[in-house]
């Protein structure tokens, strides 16, 4: 969407299975301090683990305020007004900077990057780091016991007539 | 995956695809059904079953009968089984959407794409500004680029995202350095890919909102691809807007014209002008849509009398009573 510089914290393939929001948030917190950032913006919930934890944990490590599930962000006189999507509707809170925010789907509409910008982005600086550079060890805190797909759908039975259908349903105990 | 992808994908049947030798968006990469159907079984007019089923890539034993049924629109037999050569689903797909001011630039981009993307190119489609207006106005789709004259979808499919990305970057840098495109974007994720494809795939749907459609599907030499649209527009005048789009990568133009209601006077201005134009340029009056009912009597614009004579002999041999799809494909 528009950046001048990037840092890539590389996690080796073998460690990826044990990578959890607690590790990511420790790294982000250290990075934020190193970069002297005043705003950390992350997605609210990843589609792989569905955790919804990184923003909250990062804010805790930094001891910064947090505005999660943000669908609108306004800056007024050094404060942030964040509108949050919650069960009951919308909640608007006021935060002081520096802060951690997590984005909701409704926050914006992703733009298409234009060709000249895409080409410029390829030439921008990308620093490579490791979790160790931030003093973080990817040690699993959980053990995955089981991971299985939902049961395969059983094939249905084709019947010849309405009478057959009723008989079959009776047989299966679905109707008296 | 299946080797073809076409507008009717949600409702068409495979037997129908075979009988109509369906083309579509990726013929440029995966070839026509004449190549990807390895074997088939068909039922003849007299009920006899001709079994030409085979899963072999190569089989030079006698006449290749399956080719008769592919594209015959059911007039020689009904296809009941097929063996399809399926390509691997690509690991990496990239979609670029580009804007050109002139058709000359479109042709230059096509030439560059063939040279620099070659083996990974999987689709190369064009749509003019009129087509873009149809989908933005009638279907409320968004144009990611500003107004232009021609829009291109360039898609690559390959086995390695990094390699393909590098090839695409070099290609795009080249286009920009040489000023062949004045604007463009690359889809960043599957949603943007779908949105870009929707602009092209929904033109026909958008056209339905314009009134009665006169739809043409022709093959032309690449350098004349858009000349037909320009000439037709001049010929018809400004109150009958012509919309041009299609598979410029394989020379197949879709030309659509709309009038509020069906009007025979409009039809008479379009035909046979369009067929004569196409014939004069050595093209085909029906690139992928077949002849069916409406174009069978124009077959001579694209096929010689000797060819049509042999077709009629085959039809007589295989369906002497004329029960298979009568009044279609072959002329009166």
Secondary-structure map with pairings?
The complex is a heterodimer of chains A (176) and B (332).
Chain A: E1 5-9, H1 13-16, H2 21-35, E2 39-43, H3 54-62, E3 66-76, E4 79-86, E5 89-96, E6 99-103, H4 115-122, E7 125-129, H5 162-171
Parallel strand pairs in A: 1-7, 2-6, 3-6
Antiparallel strand pairs in A: 3-4, 4-5
Chain B: H1 14-19, H2 27-30, H3 33-36, E1 37-43, E2 49-52, H4 66-69, E3 78-84, E4 92-100, H5 103-116, E5 121-128, H6 129-139, E6 150-158, H7 161-177, E7 183-186, H8 190-201, H9 203-207, E8 212-219, H10 227-236, E9 242-247, E10 252-259, H11 264-270, H12 273-280, H13 305-318
Antiparallel strand pairs in B: 1-2, 1-3, 4-6, 4-7, 5-6, 5-9, 8-10, 9-10
Describe the 3D structure.
The complex is a heterodimer of chains A (176) and B (332). In chain A, helix 2 crosses helix 3. With 176 residues, chain A is of the alpha/beta class. In chain A, the strands form two sheets. Chain A has a five-stranded mixed sheet, covered by helices on one side. In chain A, strands 1-7 form a two-stranded parallel sheet. Chain A has helices spanning 13-16, 21-35, 54-62, 115-122, 162-171, and strands at 5-9, 39-43, 66-76, 79-86, 89-96, 99-103, 125-129. The model of chain A has no long low-confidence stretch (mean pLDDT 92). Chain B is globular. A seven-stranded antiparallel sheet of chain B has the order 7-4-6-5-9-10-8, sandwiched between helices. Chain B is of the alpha+beta class. In chain B, helix 5 (103-116) packs antiparallel against helix 7 (161-177). The model of chain B has no long low-confidence stretch (mean pLDDT 96).
What does the overall shape of chain B look like? globular
Taking the alpha carbons of the first and last residues of chain A, their distance comes to 61 Å
Q: What's the total count of β strands of chain B?
A: 10
Shape of chain A: elongated
Mean pLDDT of chain A: 92
């Amino acid at each position: 969407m528009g950046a001048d510089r990037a840092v890539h914290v590389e996690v080796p393939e073998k460690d990826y299975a044990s990578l959890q929001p607690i590790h990511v948030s420790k790294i982000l917190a250290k990075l934020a301090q190193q970069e002297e950032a005043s705003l950390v913006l992350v997605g609210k919930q990843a589609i792989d683990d569905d955790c919804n934890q990184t923003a909250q944990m990062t804010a805790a490590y930094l001891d910064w305020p947090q505005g999660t599930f943000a669908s609108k962000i306004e800056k007024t006189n050094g404060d942030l007004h964040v509108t949050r999507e919650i069960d009951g509707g919308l909640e608007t809170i006021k935060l002081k900077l520096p802060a951690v925010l997590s984005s909701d789907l409704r926050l914006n509409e992703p733009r298409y990057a234009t060709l000249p910008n895409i080409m410029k982005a390829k030439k921008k600086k990308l620093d490579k780091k490791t979790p160790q550079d931030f003093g973080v060890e990817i040690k699993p805190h959980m053990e995955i016991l089981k991971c299985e797909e939902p049961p395969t759908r059983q094939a249905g039975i084709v019947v010849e007539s309405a009478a057959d259908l009723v008989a079959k349903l009776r047989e299966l105990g679905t109707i008296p | 995956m299946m080797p073809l992808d076409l507008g009717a994908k949600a409702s068409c049947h495979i037997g129908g695809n075979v009988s109509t030798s369906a083309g579509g968006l990726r013929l440029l990469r995966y070839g026509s059904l004449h190549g990807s159907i390895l074997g088939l079984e068909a039922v003849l007019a007299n009920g006899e079953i001709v079994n030409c089923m085979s899963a072999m890539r190569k089989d030079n034993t006698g006449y290749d009968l399956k080719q008769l049924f592919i594209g015959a629109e059911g007039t020689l037999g009904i296809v009941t089984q097929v063996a399809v050569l399926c390509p691997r689903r690509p690991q990496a797909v990239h979609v670029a959407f580009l804007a050109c001011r002139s058709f000359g630039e479109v042709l230059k981009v096509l030439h560059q794409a063939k040279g620099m993307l070659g083996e990974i190119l999987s689709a190369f489609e064009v749509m003019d500004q009129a087509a873009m207006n149809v989908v933005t106005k009638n279907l409320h789709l968004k144009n990611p680029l500003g107004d232009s004259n021609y829009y291109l979808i360039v898609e690559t499919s390959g086995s390695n995202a990094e390699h393909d990305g590098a090839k695409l970057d070099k290609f795009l840098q080249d286009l920009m350095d040489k000023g062949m495109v004045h604007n463009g974007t690359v889809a960043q994720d599957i949603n943007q890919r779908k949105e870009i494809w929707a602009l092209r795939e929904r033109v026909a749907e958008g056209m339905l909102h314009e009134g009665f459609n006169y739809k043409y599907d022709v093959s032309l030499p690449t350098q004349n691809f858009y000349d037909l649209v320009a000439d037709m527009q001049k010929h018809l005048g400004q109150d009958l807007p012509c919309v041009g789009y299609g598979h410029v990568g394989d020379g197949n133009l879709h030309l659509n014209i709309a009038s509020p209601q069906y009007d025979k006077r409009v039809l008479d201005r379009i035909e046979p002008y369009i067929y004569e134009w196409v014939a004069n340029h050595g093209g085909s009056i029906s690139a992928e849509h077949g002849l069916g009912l409406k174009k069978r009597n124009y077959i001579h614009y694209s096929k010689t009398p000797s060819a049509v004579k042999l077709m009629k002999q085959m039809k007589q041999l295989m369906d002497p009573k004329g029960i298979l799809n009568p009044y279609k494909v072959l002329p009166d």
